[in-house]
Amino acid sequence: MIKGMFTSSSMAYPCQISKELEQYVVTNAPPTVYYIPDFITEVEEQYLLQEVYKAPKPKWTQLSGRRLQNWGGLPRPKGMLAEKLPDWLLKYTNRISDLGAFNGKAANHVLVNEYKPGEGIMPHEDGPLYHPTVTTISLGSHALLDFYRPIGQCGTEGPRDEESRCLLSLLLRPRSLLILREEMYERLLHGIRNDWEDTLTERVANLSSASAQPGGVLTRGTRVSLTIRHVPKVICANLLLGRKKC
Ligand SMILES: O=C(O)CCC(=O)C(=O)O
Ligand SMILES: [Fe+2]
């Protein structure tokens, strides 16, 4: 962990990503991936898991292959009716905003995903509703996040199956923070296979910073991820209610 890096919670956030993060750039991936192992401690991990599981049942949305909680409001093309993030999340979202991850803005949205072994998420783009940065804290178990070329860019010849479009993978250990920007966010799709274990290959771009070896096999447990983002288009609830202040 970087000394002093994660302590301030000032209201104004740095406009540029912190220089201290440069050591965490994954150099053999397209621009730009930051992978920070042990961003949080084991005690913080347990605390966050406890808070996630404290949420009432209706807070969960069951999808095929995972369930999720949405915090901060529902992002929509016309704007998100923003709700204040709970303090237990704000403490961590502010730490990330303090790193300049959102170009001077504060994270205002968190998606909690829970994956049981065998579950995953289909390859997708996060799309234009968010500022082009996505950050993820992993809790409880690892994930192998796969990145794919969009179909349109594969050329007309050649196979187009998922396997051949897969460019690289990132191993996300519990307690790590992942920051994706630029090409990694804007051009590539990402997904997690529905599997019970993950075999590590040379295609995993952050093997060394995730303390892993090619050939290793990791058995999946239940993983909870916090996907932390900035939604730029926000509708102020107070204005809708006729109040002057936002
Ligand atoms: O669980 C993860 O790390 C990925 C989640 C994700 O891609 C998303 O919420 O859009
Ligand atoms: Fe995503």
TrEMBL record:
GO cellular component: nucleus
Subcellular location(s) per record: Nucleus
Domain of life: Eukaryota
InterPro entries found in the cross-reference section: AlkB-like, AlkB-like_sf, ALKBH6, Oxoglu/Fe-dep_dioxygenase_dom
Keyword entries, A-Z: Dioxygenase, Iron, Metal-binding, Nucleus, Oxidoreductase
Chief location: nucleus
Domain (Fe2OG dioxygenase) ranges: 106-232
Cofactor list: Fe(2+)
Any GO molecular function: metal ion binding
TM helices/strands, residue ranges: none
Pfam families given in the database record: 2OG-FeII_Oxy_2 (PF13532)
PANTHER family: ALPHA-KETOGLUTARATE-DEPENDENT DIOXYGENASE ALKB HOMOLOG 6
Family: Belongs to the alkB family.
Name the record gives this protein: Alpha-ketoglutarate-dependent dioxygenase alkB homolog 6 isoform X1
Species of origin: Clupea harengus (Atlantic herring)
Name of the gene encoding the protein in the UniProt record: LOC105901515
